[in-house]
Amino acid sequence: MDWFFGQVSTLSKIFYYLIQVVHWTILISVLAYLIAVILGLVFGIARISRNRVVKALAGAYINVLRGVPLLVLIFFVYFGLGKIINLDRFVAGVLAVGVCYGAYMAEIFRSGIQAIDYGQHEAAMSLGMTRWQTLRHIILPQSIRIVIPPGANEFIACLKDSSLVSIIGLRELTRAGREYANQHFLDFQTWLMVGLIYLIMTLTLTRIVKYIEKRYAVVGYGADKK
Amino acid sequence: MIVEMKNVTCRFGDITAVDDVSLSIDRGDVVVIIGPSGSGKSTLLRCLNALEDIESGEINIDGHLIDRDHKDIHEIRLEVGMVFQQFNLFPHLSVMGNVNLAQTVVRKRSKDEATSVSQELLGKVGLTDKIDAFPNQLSGGQKQRVAIARALAMNPKVMLFDEATSALDPEMIGEVLEVIKQLAEDGMTMLLVTHEIGFAREVASRVVFLDDGRVVETGPPDQVFDNPQNQRTRDFLAKVL
Questions:
Q1: Nearest to B18, CA basis, from B149, B211, B181, B174
Q2: What is the pLDDT averaged over residues B116-132?
Q3: Where residue A219 falls among pLDDT bands split at 50, 70, 90?
Q4: How far is Cα A12 from Cα B87, in angstroms, rounded to an integer?
């Protein structure tokens, strides 16, 4: 019994220690994801542009960033670019994760846009709408609903991958976990708690996404089927 | 003359969908285009609002030109309304939203102005009680009537109907044809592709029979339907009548 309460006390101490830095993990993920959404939208649209140069540039961005490990990208931005333009670890970490996830988001936006029936474009054109007006008023509002589930998956993946920036010394959840484990020789308990905190965050996110999907469903259209 | 096509040809790769077609349409004319499937009826219609590019020839709609040197695509689309077989309503917008959108975005009408136009037109097609409904809550016939109101809201000078009743259940066809007939009586210039021969006979001022992308025969409905001059027209009518 004493052993049990001892463990509970140790675990709660660890939990209390880790929870003090969890806002860094959240902040890094949210900022990186915001960058990813903006880049994704821009490059997703560029990918299906009629302008060949724009299209090729977007293709290059997507293929290069998807083909390089995120860890290597983080090293490149912090140690490589950081040498030239002096980036601090936070900016470098957020930028690397954001730019990497931007490539995934671009593909999600592209497929979301292309999933819309071509008849929608034709109806809009026949009403005299330009390509931009069609995209803004007809296509994107419908694509968003298609993009929400895979887009939210990317946010969850992004939150987990934010642990990689611990390697450049950003003191977020994983980094704090390593410090604690090394100081107290409590690897099993510490990593258990680190994992648990990530899990709590990702499961909460999953619930929020479900709610958003329901909230923005249109009657008889797409995601409102239970 | 409000629509004039001169030697219009439209190709998809090796296939010539519309082959050297010339056609003049006066204000208030109701032209029904008939012909076997694959004869280029829909393509001909789609050329008229530049949904398909023409390879050669000239299209003039109320002074706006599409030919080798002119591409007044935007102006022409403003003059020409189109109703599609598959309705193509915007599923994320309510009935009112569907009819309002292009009025505010393209015609730059204020929201109030657009709403009053929409209300009037939705009343005209008998859907006043469905203003707040979403497209997927409507029957096929109701959807198509919304699509007609949406096209009319832009004040087109010409309306194109591309097999507007072909995707409808039989009991819904009547209500859509009724709206089209009303438009004809109001003097709207229209081109219709349809398989409803009885209806064509009733509303058409002229019938055009198309085969293999070419105009084979054209004339008033009595003449084309009752006394066709061309063998291919006779063969086609023998199959559908």
A1: B211
A2: 96
A3: low
A4: 61
Q: What is the dihedral of CA B194, B196, B197, B199, to 10 degrees?
A: -100
Q: Residue B18: what are its φ and ψ, rounded to 5°?
A: -125, 125
User: Residue B7 phi/psi, 5° resolution?
Assistant: 50, 45
- State the Cα–Cα distance between residues A77 and A64, nearest whole angstrom: 15
Average pLDDT, rounded, for chain A: 92
Q: Does A183 touch chain B (CB under 8 A)?
A: no
DSSP secondary structure string, A95-156? HHHHHHHHHHHHHHHHHHHHTS-HHHHHHHHHTT--HHHHIIIIIHHHHHHHHHHHHHHHHH
pLDDT surpassing 90 at residue B1 = no
pLDDT digits (tens, 9 = 90+) for B134-163: 999 999 999 999 999 999 999 999 999 999
- Tell me what pLDDT residue A94 has: 97
Between CA B34 and CA B221 the distance in angstroms is 11
- Among the partner-chain residues A129, A137, A221, the one whose CB lies closest to the CB of B136 is A221
User: Do the Cβ atoms of A218 and B150 come within 8 Å?
Assistant: no
Q: Could you give the ipTM of this predicted complex? A: 0.92
Chain A, nearest residue to B75 by Cα: A128
Q: What is this structure's pTM? A: 0.87
Whether B136 and A130 lie within 8 Å, measured CB to CB: no
